[in-house]
């Protein structure tokens, strides 16, 4: 694999990894907010 190809693969992999972690964190916060909203509605 050439240097340019390797660099491109590393960059794309890193972007996907970061994006996946970001989306997971956003989804968890959204879930926590929904759960908190339901608790307030019940209380």
Count of beta strands: 0
Class by alpha and beta content:
mainly alpha
DSSP helix count? 1
Q: Give average pLDDT, whole number.
A: 82
Structural domain count: 1
Measured by DSSP, the beta-strand proportion falls in under 5%
Order of helices and strands: H
Helical fraction equals: over 70%
Radius of gyration: 19 Å
Subunit arrangement of the protein:
single chain
Stretches with pLDDT under 50, minimum 5 residues: none
Q: N- to C-terminal separation?
A: 60 Å
Tell me, what's the shape? rod-shaped
Profile the largest sheet.
Answer: none
Please characterize this protein's 3D structure.
The structure is a single chain. This protein has 43 residues and is mostly helical. It has one domain (1-43). The chain contains one helix and no strands. It has one helix at residues 3-42. The chain is rod-shaped.
List the defining traits of the structure above.
rod-shaped, mainly alpha, 43 residues, 1 helix
Concise overview:
This protein has 43 residues and is mainly alpha-helical. The protein has one helix at 3-42.
Helices, strands, pairings?
Blueprint: H1 3-42
